[in-house]
Amino acid sequence: MNSRGSLAILFAAVLAACQSAAYPASTFPAPDRWESATASPTPVFPTRAISLTPTIPPTPTPRTYTVRQGDTFGTIASKFGVTVDGLVRANPNVNPNALPIGQVLVIPAPGTGKETPQPSPTPAALDIETPSCYAQPGGGTWCLAIVANPGPDPVSSVFLRFSRYPAAAVDPTVSRETPLPVTVLPAGARTVAAVFFPPEESQEWMVRIELIGAIRTPEAPGHLPLAVLREDARRSAEGLELTVEFQIDPPDGAAANRLDAALVLLDSSGRPVGFRTYHGTGDWPSGTPQSLTLGAYLLAGEMESYEFILQARRVEAADATPTETP
User: Fold this and answer.
1) pTM score
2) For the chain, is the Cβ count within 10 Å smaller at the N or the C terminus?
3) Would 317 be classed as within a structural domain?
4) Is residue 139 domain-shared with residue 92, that is, in the same domain?
5) Which of 140, 141, 218, 205 is nearest to 171 (CA)?
6) Structural domain boundaries enclosing 174
7) Which tens digits make up the pLDDT trace of 101-111?
8) E-assigned strand segments in 167-255
């Protein structure tokens, strides 16, 4: 759900019953405050290398995968091109309905007999802008990219890889993989993907971003309508503090226990110059106004506008552990 005008409905998960007070934000590691009025991003030579289908290569032996926020056996199986049954058989001691973050799974190799053929999920093409990268006063660099879903259906299981290359190099010195901050990107919506790179001696490097996987689905299971009732945006020289009043209205009246949100600050050319993400657990009853406050620092330049996306959903008790994206 986009904020410029119609932040009105975004997919939301059924959340379990409770308080209507504002909740503190959990985030990516907080970006440093931007301290120089004349600072410019570290020199980069960004390019785009976007694949519209999962690009994880097959290997003759099983691989492993560490469960991340938002993963399910279904999304992991789709990502690696195996069946859920094959994934279950390769991990007999793991409960598919209670999949903890950090769990290491064995991924069976296609053709090993541990999985059977199944139709591939429909890959989704997304519009991915060139990354914008900003050196931090404390060292390291944040790289941000706007990711948009042109439609016609929602897209889930979006996973991207940012890779950093020294000038004229063939192989990257470091790569970072990240999901989007929201589990489903509605048709016509967009949000920010962000990664942090450690300091590097070379001052001339480029960043490439590629789409590892994304699945287009007619519906967003587990997400329910959410309406934004009011926004209060307070700007400062350092960034923006946004308070959103919202209401969740699932047809069955159930409550939500998970909120996911992303706030991105844009300059006059539409380039992302700051961001904040939120992944929180709690109790948000349906039919009752709730509030959420997020603050985002500028990484460089000046903010002209902002965009905001908020989703609510219900997750199983084993998946409802508060997490922060590393």
Assistant:
1) 0.63
2) C
3) no
4) no
5) 205
6) 123-216
7) 888 888 887 65
8) 174-179, 184-185, 190-197, 205-216, 226-235, 239-248
